[in-house]
Write a structure and sequence with these properties.
Layout (H helix, E strand, L loop, with lengths): L5 H12 L18 H17 L3 H12 L8 H12 L3 H15 L6 H54 L13 H13 L10 H10 L5 H6 L17 H14 L4 H13 L3 H13 L3 H12 L11 H13 L3 H13 L8 H13 L3 H13 L7 H12 L4 H13 L7 H13 L3 H10 L2
Helix pairs in contact: 1-2, 2-3, 3-4, 4-5, 5-6, 6-8, 10-11, 11-12, 12-13, 13-14, 14-15, 15-16, 16-17, 17-18, 18-19, 19-20, 20-21
Length: 449
Amino acid sequence: MKCLRPIFLGIICSFLFTLPPSVSAESTTISDNLPLDVQVDLLMTELSRLLKIDDNEGIIALIPRIRALDIEIPDSLYFLEARALFRIGKALTARDQLVVYLANTGRDGRYYEQATELLLAVKEEADIQERKQAEQTRLRRIELAKSIKKARNLRIREAQRNLQQLGFRLAVENGEFNNPTREALAVYQIRHGLQVNGDITDETLEKLKNSVPESHNCDGLARYASKPQEWGIPISQIPAQVAVTACNEALRQFPEVIRFQIQYARSLLAAGRANDALAAIEPAARLGYPAAEYLVASMHERGLLSANSKPDMANALRWYKYAQAKQYPRALLKMAGLTEQGKAGISRSSAAATKLYLQAADLGHPPALVIAGNKYVSGRGVKRDYAKALHLYTSAAELSYPEAEFKVGEMYERGRGVKRNKTSAKAWYRRASAQGHAAAQLKLERLDG
């Protein structure tokens, strides 16, 4: 081995192979600004001290500093480093360093016998650590893949959620990058002058987010149940004048957003402007949005679209069925009611009606959960089961549905499906009352004496 700096190599070798028995230099910070020969002297003195006191951590930290100097150093450092690594339990790294040492020096190496013995000693533990390391790497890759998939799924859902609001009804929010989603993205990109590739690019996603606001005054005034777990503001409770103004403004700013079209129509209905409401809602209904179909159906049922103001149940039923086919909870409840009463040409059937009620409840729709709970309390269409009723009421109450909170309070007050508990009953009545539930307020007044 040709030495680049023979003098410094000699210094190192003298330290490694004839360690002075009484080195007592304390560890110091060695500046890189010192002359190279001084750095070598200080580093080797420190290594000598560390070897004498078997400070393996210190040896492992120091040797890379020596190796980084602009000098040629002996291969013995690989052995010393490997021995220190083995002693602190890093058998895998120790094995690698020993292999380097033996490959560089062969049988001529000063520590050949010790290195071969140590290599045999570390082999089994190194193999175990290697397998463990490989398994950890495999698990990290799996977790990374999961994280990437989750992030991708959230990104797809966000795009689908916004596309749904912009008239692309078939881009269902399910996190699957399917053909309807790709086609919707491509059409949206064409309409807005974006790069057309049918993918969720950063530019496309940002444009989508800017096209659909997360909230607006219109939402708070005329909200409808856009998801099964939601319930809307009854049209009779919409403050018509304020809501019409707010939702009209929302549509001027975001004319493509379906929820504003539906809420504007609901506001117009609250103001008694049925024809204007139909004009506002019809585009969304024609696109197959179930909430819009349901609203058109209810207008027909109330006779708001008839010349003689008489209910048009034929058209109402047609639109209700469109929404029912899409598992819209309110349409399921409506069809259940018509079936239970035998109206609109539907054969009366308590069993069929109950099936529809429970179908809507299975979707997690709070009003449907309460109706299903009522069925289990009364035993009509199903076997009476107070525990089941309490479960259904509680599921809806946990979504802060006031009628469900009231019902849970009644169950505790009467001891149905649960041990009677006046304190719990009052707590639930109080929650419902805080949301304006009049019957809950009366219950509280009575229980408080």
